[in-house]
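Please study the protein below:
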Amino acid sequence: MSTVTYYADDVAEARAWYAEFLGVDAYFSRNAPDGTLGYAEFRIGDYQAELGLVQRQFEVTPSEGPGGSILFWAVDDLEATLDRLFSLGAKVHDEPRVRGEGFVTASVVDPFGNILGVMTNTHYLAVAQQNRDKRLG
């Protein structure tokens, strides 16, 4: 995964919400033709993947509600992450589900109507550790 894009009617509000959740501010932004914030981008995770927030008016395939593919973010503590998301106004999309040993997924709908997946996954952690070891050694 290189970039995931989420849409919001108010990108400035979404940028503030994600900055609060992630604990970092967006590193890049661009205004829309009307002068409002049209795009904001964060770098997140072990591989500094991009999370882009785009004004909903630019969405190519708009939908009436949450839907589509779900991108899962690997987190260290699923329960704590869900608690934090709920405290920031996210709503349950799918309760935590054990998918196999060391592999649990859940998803929420952010205040802007996007599905945000979170997971603990020992397989992902092993690959991330191998890549860290390669960089160090």
